[in-house]
Queue: 2 jobs
Job 1
Amino acid sequence: SIVSPLLRTGYHFQPPMNWINDPNGPLYYKGWYHLFYQYNPKGAVWGNIIWAHSVSRDLINWISLEPAITPSIPTDQYGVWSGSTTLLHDGTPAILYTGIGRADSNYQIQNIALPKNASDPLLREWTKPEYNPVAVPEAGINATQFRDPTTAWYAGGRWRMLVGGLRPDTLRGVAILYRSRDFKHWVRAKHPLHSAMTGMWECPDFYPVGKAGAESGLDASAYGVASGVAKHVLKNSLDLTRYDYYTVGDYNNTAERYVPDNPTGDVYRRLQYDYGNFYASKTFFDPVKQRRILLGWANESDSVAHDKAKGWAGIQAIPRKIWLDAGGKQLVQWPVEELEKLRGKPVNVGDKVVKPGQHFEVTGLHSYQSDVEVSFEISSLDKAEPFDTAYINDAQKLCGMKGADVKGGVGPFGLWVLASADLAEKTAVFFRVFKDGYGKPVVLMCSDPSKSSLTPDLYKPTFAGFVDTDISSGKISLRSLIDRSVVESFGAGGKTCILSRVYPSMALGKDAHLHVFNNGATDIKVSRLTAWEMKKPLMNGA
Ligand code: DQQ
């Protein structure tokens, strides 16, 4: 089959070719942002994993360097898996990562790597100190499910780090806690920091956040109210569902415990960073702009045969600033402001009413590589459909039933992106408003790729999440980053995010169109829409 080169993303992070997965060890160091990532130098499928390395001045333009860590010692000879970076007291970055010690991947070990020359701002060469490994799967640890050390934090005279795991012979995911005085000798704490019956916890991430609504970030080692710490966040990537879930809670350094505010939040009505294709994410503190930044991997949804034919697979989502929402119950995410440098001339639409069943095209730009921001105003919530509480824990199922083409009361309304001229192909990103038994609005955000391509045999999951926003004013916003085979959307200012991979066969390049649609029974006003074509940044030399 023919795979169009026009499906390769323009401004999302990619190496020139081959397979990529998890972002690893992001950090800012001496003027440069560093991104390491899981990479197969030999092909477009997972395997032969090493740490590839790119650097950037702005998180948008990337320069590719030589791989940072490759197999070389007995405790990483079969693979260099995910991990994190920590800045030591003297400012030297240290990498903690998982090495694979057996050919069948069934023996996972934690190792350290240090810069060969810490005065090199590009951190081009890394060495593995002779005291490796730092943590082995001793008795009580499931050796095949023991990986992905976090950034360590320092409090009360000790470093601490987490390693993701699965308690032996159970379905209990665990954040195994280690402590160290010198960053060389690590001792496992008797109890994990936290655990839940969810299956394996991959890629844990644990960090402090400031008071509700404060957008500035905190260093991983910030601790206590005096340092501005209001809450902690624990994120885990669930192998079983392939989503990144988090809870907001309190961390006690002395008791070495983390307690989520919502005691059932690990398993019921779980919060996700992203309700779409976004996995194995990791945050870091950016000292330049005093913010916390989130990076996440978006796998392909295309067939393996197509991945191989294209010669590449996997992208990183646009780096997002992340902070605690004003309500204190969830996080908010927004593309880093540096992305706006790629915007071309804006195309504006204002004060346009979209009647039930109508749609209009946004013209004046090529939208296949664009950034679109819309503010909607709902004329009335009277016709909102009743909300069936059976779906309170399953937005995705609800949206699977009530897709973009299923007429509603208030919505579905939103964008058709990457649409072909005849609209036979289109990806819908939209809202639908329900009303619960007390008359309270329930807002659903969906990304519906069911019509995104006429190519057969594509994986086209509908993604959805609820949006915890006050819609009594009738106002709600949507931003979509459209980039050829990815649509990355932010609802209500970043309260609900959905990344989706789509592979149009006709809506490619200049043949891709952008529309606003309303398939509900209530008028929707576009109070303002601005769309920008996006320039191509430096992207690892490709
Ligand atoms: N990917 C890595 C593992 C991690 C998984 C291997 C998550 O370390 O658990 O490539 O995608």
Job 2
Amino acid sequence: MAKESEESFESEVGKLNELSIFDHSETRRKFIKQVAGTSVAIAIGPNLLKSAPLDQIDSTGAAEAAGESINVHLKINGKAYALDIDPRVSLLEALRERLQLTGSKKGCDHGQCGACTVLINGRRVNSCLTLAVMHESDEITTIEGLANGKELHPMQAAFVQQDGFQCGYCTPGQICSAIALLKENHANSDHEIREWMSGNICRCGAYAGILAAIKEAKTKVRA
Ligand code: FES
Ligand code: FES
């Protein structure tokens, strides 16, 4: 039984990997192709694919379009990046289209679904509603930064154990939001969890599993 349970868990972790919950470029590309291929293909232009860690970038890097880009330094999942970027680019666009951190999903792009939720200085933020240039000195954490190597964050593990997802499109945002929810001490009853997670929509209706996962993680999540 224990072996079956382990195999089942590994299988579910494999699904999470395919949903970009781990930082694995091959599976991430596969998921983008399968789920969001058309819109991503339209959205990603050749100019938008330039990015590099700070230690690899030319500090005098050419602007994308003369007079329209500015240089910004972002710290994401503990790693520093420098970008020449249009000041109107949202943090979500910068993550997905400049840095290929595609775990954060674009749902509505209007602050209504929570699919794009990331942690900024430990607080949950809809990355579609904030500009990348506003976060020079901030600590940004995306779903790719939660696991410790192959060890899932307790909230990720709880989502697997409790079937907290179906298609998985909302899951990165749900997990980031749930981690902040615990820090906010807003998980003291089922009603409170539902209320404070109401900004994260799940089109698959996996709410029962999400609730169970948050309750399980509450006893295990690291500070
Ligand atoms: Fe940001 Fe929906 S994509 S809230
Ligand atoms: Fe499909 Fe939430 S699991 S949208």
